[in-house]
């Protein structure tokens, strides 16, 4: 069998599919021999054999097994054609301390939850089960606990994929940069790359030993950030969120009557920021959505030092009240 016949066998498979997965499906479902696959791939037959054996062993993973069933027997909806930006959004959430992806057998959705300092859990992302299966095939997530509800954590490959997306491109423009005007060494950020300011504040204690931010306030900030991220998934370019900063939080997105998906998330975000008003909406957008540090936010807003955390707590309190009044306590599933 030549390359043309092999391409016909691989028709319908997403472009992002790893080579090992392609070889496994072509061998087990299409009946291609290991030597045929190795000849077309230009590698030794033992390499293809190891790939197939490894994929067979990975079928103990519920998400991997379900994804291979979709590919081989076309069961249920097809795997997504592309992984970004949805998968990268989920990887950012999974890179947060204490975050896991939970998925139940037979459910069409998976959720990302994160443990708080008080031992409770807050939901930070919702995604389709097909997307979770694709991430497992890419080896970006791995099963840490099996059972009625399986739990997955981000892997080293997943963190590497997230780092590649966040890394600036290296090209000739960077190589031609002058050396004499090198910028000063940046200060060490107050928050890690995977930690939002509200997560750091939630670990702090007030004068009476209570958490500076309650779990309910953290959940309100996470809901705002989730809507902010979901609103980016509709492919619109150049969305100007700065119009919601000080002096521009009034008004929403005219003509956007969507009831689900990115359009609904954009409407929820606009309504929440409009309810917060100038100042409070500004600090909520900067710290919860842009993950801007409190020191930076204080300087840009012209506030005194260490006042930002107080204003942010007031904004989260009003944000929680907004969600309780519009969506009810806890609110519906996002996504």
Automatic annotation (TrEMBL):
Domain DUF6456: from-to ranges: 190-325
InterPro entries per the UniProt record, alphabetical: DUF6456 (IPR045599)
Protein name: Helix-turn-helix domain-containing protein
Species per Swiss-Prot/TrEMBL record: Rhodosalinus halophilus
């Amino acid at each position: 069998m030549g390359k043309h016949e092999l391409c016909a066998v691989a028709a319908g498979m997403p472009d992002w599919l790893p080579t090992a997965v392609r070889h496994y499906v072509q061998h087990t479902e299409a009946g291609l021999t290991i030597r045929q696959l190795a000849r077309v791939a230009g590698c030794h037959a033992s390499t293809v054999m190891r790939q197939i054996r490894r994929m067979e062993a990975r079928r103990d993973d519920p998400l991997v097994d379900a994804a291979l069933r979709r590919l081989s027997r076309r069961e249920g909806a097809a795997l997504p054609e592309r992984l970004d930006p949805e998968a990268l959004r989920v990887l950012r959430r999974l890179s947060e301390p204490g975050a896991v992806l939970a998925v139940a057998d037979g459910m069409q959705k998976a959720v990302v939850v994160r443990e708080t300092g008080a031992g409770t859990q807050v939901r930070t992302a919702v995604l389709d089960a097909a997307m979770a299966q694709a991430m497992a095939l890419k080896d970006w997530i791995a099963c840490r606990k099996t059972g009625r509800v399986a739990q997955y954590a981000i892997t080293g490959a997943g963190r590497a994929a997230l780092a590649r997306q966040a890394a600036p491109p290296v090209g000739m423009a960077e190589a031609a940069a002058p050396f004499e005007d090198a910028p000063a060494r940046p200060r060490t950020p107050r928050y890690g790359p995977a930690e939002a300011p509200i997560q750091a504040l939630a670990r702090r204690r007030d004068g009476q030993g209570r958490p500076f931010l309650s779990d309910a306030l953290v959940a309100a900030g996470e809901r705002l950030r989730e809507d902010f991220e979901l609103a980016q998934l509709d492919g619109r370019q150049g969305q100007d969120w700065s119009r919601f900063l000080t002096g521009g939080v009034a008004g929403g997105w005219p003509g956007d009557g969507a009831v689900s998906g990115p359009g609904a998330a954009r409407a929820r975000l606009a309504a929440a920021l409009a309810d917060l008003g100038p100042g409070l909406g500004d600090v909520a957008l900067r710290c919860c959505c842009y993950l801007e540090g409190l020191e930076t936010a204080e300087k840009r807003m012209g506030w005194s030092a260490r006042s930002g955390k107080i204003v942010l707590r007031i904004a989260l309190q009003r944000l929680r009240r907004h969600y309780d009044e519009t969506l009810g306590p806890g609110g519906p599933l996002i996504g």
